Amino acid sequence: MRKTIILKAIALLLVISSCSDDEGQDLIDFTVNFNSETVSTTEKDTSVDVQLNFSRPASEAGTISIAYTATNAEYGTDFTTTPDGESGTIAVAVAKGDHSASFTFNKLSNAIEGSTKSVTFSIGSFDQTDWKQGAKASALVSFTPIASTNGIIDSENGGSNIPNQVYFDFSSATQTAVRRDTWEIAFYNGTENRVFLNPALAVSAVEITGETDLLAITEASDLPEPMELTGLNAMFQPEAVTVGTVSELLEGLPVGYYQYGNLDEGISFTDNAEGTLEGTAFSEVSTTATENYVYILSLGYEIPTKPAETGSIATTGDQRGYMKVRVLSDGNSYTIQYAELAETESYNEVTISKDAAYNLTAFSLTNGETISVEPNKDQWDINLSGVFSYYGDSGGLVAGLTYSDYVLHNTLGNVGLYQVTIEGDVPTYSNFTMGDVDESAFVFDNRAVVGSGWRDAFNGVINENVYYVLKDADGNYYKFDFTDYKSTEGERGHYQFTYERL
């Protein structure tokens, strides 16, 4: 009898606990915030989305009423909105389960040079009585570029397969998402003639020193000279490897633990993690054609299509194969010769002019065309690469390494960044002000300062004792802090960070 009573009591406690958990979800206020308090447009922009973020998914459908006031602008003449706001308010619909909502600002005219033209949108009322305004209850949309003051950003990396790399610009609060499998190599538009590999796709490359005939190299070819390299054996111990044929070389070319290299001799089949011009797998392209040799490229790995289990990632699919490439330059343009590795009859040739507006011009070897990847060099600050690979040293293991949740900054575009570690008298993120900025700490020659250090890979949590300070090319200062790398449903590949202009 006593056992029965105890069992019933335990069952009752479980029911109460379960109910308490469900009710606890309802105790979280449903608040609505603008994603950013400032949104700027350029002369070329004809529309821009204005986003509203929710504190939790909507448990019921409803409508948010947005009011607006205009400065030197009239509705219907200078701007409109979608949904329509001619009445003076905009009704933004929210469906059950939505995490956010948005409306579109349509710009019909530009501001006259030297004048100010803007529209301020404010969260008005709700048709759900328990919905509330958050701290960011208004947003100013400018007809001209202005530096964004703050915001909370949910990245568009695309989920557990991390199909996209994302470029973010703090001053315009703009993110640009690009599939990471759209390009393999990119060409530097500065004074040096450099070729970069796509680290988000794990592309690697090796030079066939002394060989200028692209069609003479196939998998069956002998190397002009044997290569003395280092690999890992089955026990993950380094061992010397002498490679005398292309087929042998292919065994250790793809990025992975068993990738060949020799850092003591300066041999790496990937670009370095820092992203310096001197650290590319390709030698600097000479303007003397006979000095530019053939390279064999491993094209990296396919992006898987099957989502990973909740809380996990799946970023590496099948190997994409190999191609051979030779690059020439006259100093103002690049000429790319490329073909399948087995091809002996003909090759493709494309010439790409340098474009000073961009750090790099990306090229797809599989499609034979230039690809729009990076925004203008002064219109992005960080790259949420998602996946990042290089040959290097990790805890004494020298091998081809691949990371997830990786973040880079725009060193080629003169963006500086440093990490703040909270210890001792160091201010917390919320207390950090412009007076705390250390000008000497900014790093302009290592794009991987953030890397994956913003999260604890082993415990699956955000690293709460670090945040970052950034100085953009226009001299604006920002602090930013990562707050999540999962969706509310627990899916990986959804990064979130908050930022504020100092």
UniProtKB/TrEMBL annotation:
Would you indicate the residue range of the signal peptide? 1-24
- Family annotation (Pfam families): HmuY
Keyword terms, alphabetized: Signal
What the entry lists under InterPro entries is as follows: HmuY (IPR025921)
Superkingdom field:
Bacteria
TM regions (residue ranges):
none
UniProt entry tagged with the keyword Signal = yes
- This protein is called what? HmuY family protein
Q: Which organism is it from?
A: Flagellimonas aurea
